Target: Lycopene cyclase domain-containing protein
Amino acid sequence: MLPDIGVFGPYTYLVTEVVWGTVALVLLWRADALRLAGRTIVVLYPVAYVWDWYTLEVGVFAIRLRTGVDLLGIPIEEHIFMVVVPALVLGIHENLRRRDES
Model:
């Protein structure tokens, strides 16, 4: 049985983004890859934004348990998601790469 993280109500999505964002930040800091990740995220962000806006607009998915705060047509949590996901991927990648180099 999965834990019920819905206890955070409308802040559930935001809380999960903060938790995983913290994990990503720690991994990037540990790999000394904050600058690299920042540059990559800045390049990826516009593509992710358009993709996210479109899929929400046409109804591909709906987001429950969110704050209801929108910015530029999408939930604030989605903006955070578009930073956290590539940061987490890059954090894992860079830590694995550095481990393989040593």
Observations:
- The chain has a mean pLDDT of 94.
